[in-house]
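Appendix B. One record, verbatim.
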Amino acid sequence: MYISNEGLIVILFVGLVAGWLAGKVVRGAGFGIIGDIVIGIAGAFVASFLFPKLGIRIGTGLVSEIVYSAIGAVILLLVVRLVRGGGRL
């Protein structure tokens, strides 16, 4: 799958916002704002590839991308905290 430079910048920006939102949604022994933002960027990449392949569509535009990425980042944060925290969410 090819991602243009503009698409990459949008994914990074959306990941920043989504990571911040995911850090607010998933509370607990956090990774701090920088760690949550990095997880958000990774969640944005996961969501941008995984959700269209699963047929999950919320809408179009920047807001839907932020929602996709926030969901991906929350899932990724929960998985990382589950692994890192020894089974605690």
